[in-house]
Amino acid sequence: MNKKIIAVDGPAGAGKSTVSKLVAQKLNYTYIDTGAMYRAVALKVIGLNKPVTEELIVDVARDIDIDLRYEDGITKVFVDGEEVTGKIRTPEVSKAASDVAKSGFVRERLTELQRKMATRGGVIMDGRDIGTHVLPNADLKIYLTASVEERAKRRCDELKAKGFEANIEDIAKDIQARDKQDMEREIAPLKQAEDAILLDTTGMSIDEVVNAILKFYSKIFETSTGEVVGGMIADAILDTVTRAVF
Ligand code: DC
Fold first, then answer.
1. Which pTM was predicted?
2. Rounded Cα distance, 37 and 125, in Å
3. Among 3, 9, 14, 143, which is disulfide-ready with 121 (CB 3.0 to 4.6 Å)?
4. What pLDDT, in 10s, does the model give residues 11-28?
5. Ligand 1: distance of its center to the CA of 66 in Å?
6. Mutate to test the pocket of ligand 1, among 17, 38, 44 (most ligand atoms within 8 A of CB)
């Protein structure tokens, strides 16, 4: 079957990576976490312990080697050969990732890498600007969102499950600040693509969200004979599915 490209965008904590990973497993697709790439640049910048200037960020982004490897059911992140999978998930790195993501140079460099990663198809890529900027011709675009309260609660539960202390009000504030910065930056801000399907996951379980996306996928691309369709037929089906799901 002709392998497709799926773009998933949305604000922090909307469940993009959890859901995208599961959809990738079901479809036997490769999952690409572009946020991890911005986090990798941020981690390296912070690690230099120097005043953070655009020049420093550009220097780091120019030379950094970022590798995403899917091993043992998780995406492992390597920076210059060192595994940093856990280190890029701290609140400090989350904030710094949103900061470095404002740099035009960083965005250009990472966009180029992301486009290369998607060339073979069979890819589900999540981020903030995938449907609008990185892969504007993606075959299926999903914009995942949820209320700030729900996103903060999910993050809080996740942290507590891992044994960390977490305060829901602080998390909600961080999420709002990051959303604002990601939506208001000049270059490739977080925005729903015109042709993306909006999925508000407030009150939905992970399985329900995954199933909704798989339903969009199969209704759009698979006919009863397993044939893959696209273009106007896909648009017509999508219209029906959108009305059926919501
Ligand atoms: O999805 P995440 O929380 O891991 O992303 C971390 C930050 O990286 C996010 O605040 C904004 C930035 N980012 C971006 O600007 N563009 C992307 N495609 C992915 C992430």
1. 0.90
2. 12
3. 3
4. 999 999 999 999 999 999
5. 15
6. 38
